[in-house]
Amino acid sequence: MAPTPNHSTDMFIRKLGGAARLSDEEREAIAHLPVTVRPLGPHQDIVREKDRPSQCCLLLEGWACRYQLLSEGKRQIFSFHIPGDIPDLQSLHIRVMDHNVCTLSSAVVAFIPHEALLDLTAAFPAIAAILWRDTLVDGAVFRAWMTGLGRRTACEAVAHLFCELYLKLQAMGLARDYAYRLPLTQLDLGDALGLSNVHVNRTLRELRGKDLITLHGGTLEIYKWQELADSCDFDPAYLHLERRTA
Amino acid sequence: MAPTPNHSTDMFIRKLGGAARLSDEEREAIAHLPVTVRPLGPHQDIVREKDRPSQCCLLLEGWACRYQLLSEGKRQIFSFHIPGDIPDLQSLHIRVMDHNVCTLSSAVVAFIPHEALLDLTAAFPAIAAILWRDTLVDGAVFRAWMTGLGRRTACEAVAHLFCELYLKLQAMGLARDYAYRLPLTQLDLGDALGLSNVHVNRTLRELRGKDLITLHGGTLEIYKWQELADSCDFDPAYLHLERRTA
DNA sequence: CGTGTCCTTGAGTGAACTCAAAAACTGTGG
DNA sequence: CCACAGTTTTTGAGTTCACTCAAGGACACG
């Protein structure tokens, strides 16, 4: 499947909740967005702190994340992104980037000029509302991570993240049967969860010991979904996915 | 100064970045929003998890916060809110609440029906964009807190929060001379920063020992702004306040 | 087949936690 | 104006979860 403008149109429409919700006119306008599709290697920055981007990137294939670097080499990862996500949608209304976006795996992204998106949202308030909503769900995921960082044990935080990612991937049709590709190092996981890579390792061992999951060769397998979810008080409400399953 | 509909109009316009940025027509529409002003006591819930609110609340006086309760009585506070904020603006586009909003001090809020806000944003895309932007800045603050929870020491996290709150209050004209009313208990601070109340207490003592701040009787005083900011790598960029100072 | 990255494990340390109790406030009613 | 109850702050002592440092093993890739 070669990445084409069509591919990105499909992805964009899927992101907006499926063609069913859009009028012909709206779909037409989306199909005519002037996108630039580009393949990227792993661990490549897409936008950087202090940049003033003039476009947004729609992730078509691969994984990306948002992060910030601190003094003494510390890093905080704010979110992981999968195909269909627009990790830097906020740049549409906030000029200056306050964090970085980079690929984790090799990836394919579609760049869409701000101008085109601003025209689109001005012409179609319904699309604006859906995109706005999307950034709000983003905020909900940030809050869930905050709870993990502040009030959950290492085990709970890791379990919670794995549950979240599974449901997000499943909703985009990218995972099923309680398993998925997870192209993250233990260091990445640690920087997302506020843990050291060593402790992530021990935590994974513990979860494996309870026969809840295995993470091996970049593939995560969940053996007991319900038990895993219960172990970390996982409540999927904050992902606000109902729109897709409906 | 009695709370009146006029007061809430002023506050709303101020929130949107000042009258200068709005057309007469836009200001007119805002002035005709059907608001309900209500005084509230301290520690009163405004909206709760799982609610499906039909209005948003604009905070006119006092402090509020967003939070979530976990098993075993744990609590995570996600944000603090000051006059001018609309803590539950997200309910405009996400039906079900995934967290709670409550007052911290006694407060005055103006409730605005969703319907009216949706009409307003549909009629005036510029207002929609400003409100959207506001929720994006919200997200930026969440990220800053994540960094604090994940990668900062207790001292740094506390200092960072105090810097953030000062700039936010100052931008709304509610603080100057490096001091402000902070109606939070040490338990509240702990639940925001992922610390125990005991450790918050020790951390405050440490900061006081360095003559950086005092927090006494609900008033925070910052003695050495620059040193405090440096001690926690505080970079105000993420607050995206430039709009107001310009 | 070597080099770099990532994972794994051990040992010792430290930041923050819990439990507990005393001291200082706050507000209320007598 | 004082007494009192409830909350909040403060301090001490002991514990624990997660960290750092260090080194060996596994794996991936050119």
TrEMBL record, chains A, B:
A Pfam cross-reference name: HTH_Crp_2
Alphabetically ordered keywords of this record: DNA-binding, Transcription, Transcription regulation
Taxonomic superkingdom: Bacteria
CDD domains given in the database record: CAP_ED
Swiss-Prot/TrEMBL GO biological process terms: regulation of DNA-templated transcription
Residues in HTH crp-type domain copies: 152-226
SMART domains: HTH_CRP (SM00419)
InterPro entries (alphabetical): cNMP-bd_dom, cNMP-bd_dom_sf, HTH_CRP, RmlC-like_jellyroll, WH-like_DNA-bd_sf, WH_DNA-bd_sf
GO MF annotation: an example: DNA binding
Protein's name according to its UniProt entry: Transcriptional activator protein Anr
UniProt organism field: Methylobacterium frigidaeris
